[in-house]
Amino acid sequence: MEINSLKPKDRLIEAIHKNDIGAVESIITQHPELLNEPLPRVDGGAALSLAAQCNNLEMVKVLVQLGPKDLQQALSRASMRAHREVSEYLVQKGADPNGLYSDTAIHYGPVILAACEALNPDGIRLMIDLGADPNVKYRTSHGYINSPIGFILGAYARNPHNKHECLEVLFNSGVPFEDTPLMAFHRGRIDLLEKHLHNDPNLVHQRFQSEDIYRPEMGFSKAMALTPIEGTTLLHLALEYDEFEIAKWLIDHGADVNARADIDSNGCGGHTPLFHAVVSIVSPTDKRTRFLLVHGADPTVRATIRHPEGGWDELADKVFENVTALEYALLFKDGPSWCNRDSISVLSNLG
């Protein structure tokens, strides 16, 4: 479609993506209201935010001169992708590295959280270089505490390599870390887990609660998980977060691949690590399922699961009674990248 045949807002978006500065200037001159019109895929930001996200420095400079209202959000969109020159320029023009993600983000918190949520270690480094506080604890309008370390621990993405590096960036910037097995787990530090196992030989069998895993006082209170993490073992968590090296280490040290999560007072729980393998946020692979089956996972185990808060909103608090891992996975077949279809095929073909 020719750009001139589009509506003005769509023409603006197209011009920004093409880095066509002349077209952007012309469109905003004819339609000045579009300068601050929210655009898609920039979380409510406008033209400047999109140009910053696209790393179009010269266009950012032109738009800043027009007096946009989304200077702060533009910094968030640039820094979460580690666009250094654009971020530095925006700070020079008044964006605050310690300010909110956007001028109205009282429910979210400061700019640095965007790179933490995206698990972008370079973005976090950039924000710290620009003066952001890596140890900030922001109390939201809802009363929660949000922090860089909390956002990394609770991120919905399953990218252990980036998660480990993000945490090391914070650690090397002076953020204090607790010396616990779960923090060693989050950091991917098997060497530290070895020390904890030496002190507590029962570690591989121990059950943990969500407040142990995420530590609300550190800045995150809700698990981004589709399978409950309450009362689970480190092996459950390793499968939930794609920590394969830790999973192998745990099994080598006696972890039970069919260990059941604790059952609560309402009779919910009892699921094994396999349930985490077949339903996991944005992690479509059968690798976890095959790994567990090779090590003796029993696909016939049944459990009653209450869908956790922080998972799929449409299923929040719904109870699924006496389901196998396969039956549980099939409940998510219409979910956005949550139902692990490759794993479903593996389990379906077991006969």
Chain-wise SSE layout:
Elements: H1 8-17, H2 21-30, H3 47-53, H4 57-64, H5 71-79, H6 84-92, H7 112-117, H8 121-129, E1 138-139, E2 145-146, H9 148-153, H10 160-172, H11 181-187, H12 190-199, H13 210-214, H14 234-240, H15 244-252, H16 273-278, H17 287-294, E3 303-306, E4 319-323, H18 325-330, H19 341-348
Antiparallel strand pairs: 1-2, 3-4
Helix pairs in contact: 1-2, 3-4, 3-5, 4-6, 5-6, 8-10, 14-15
Give a structural overview.
The protein is mostly helical. Among the domains are: 1-95, Serine Threonine Protein Phosphatase 5, Tetratricopeptide repeat; 225-351, Alpha Horseshoe (Serine Threonine Protein Phosphatase 5, Tetratricopeptide repeat). The protein is built from 19 helices and 4 strands. The protein has a two-stranded antiparallel ribbon. A two-stranded antiparallel sheet has the order 3-4. Helix 1 (8-17) runs antiparallel to helix 2 and helix 8 (121-129) packs parallel to helix 10 (160-172). The chain is globular and about 65 Å long. The termini are far apart.
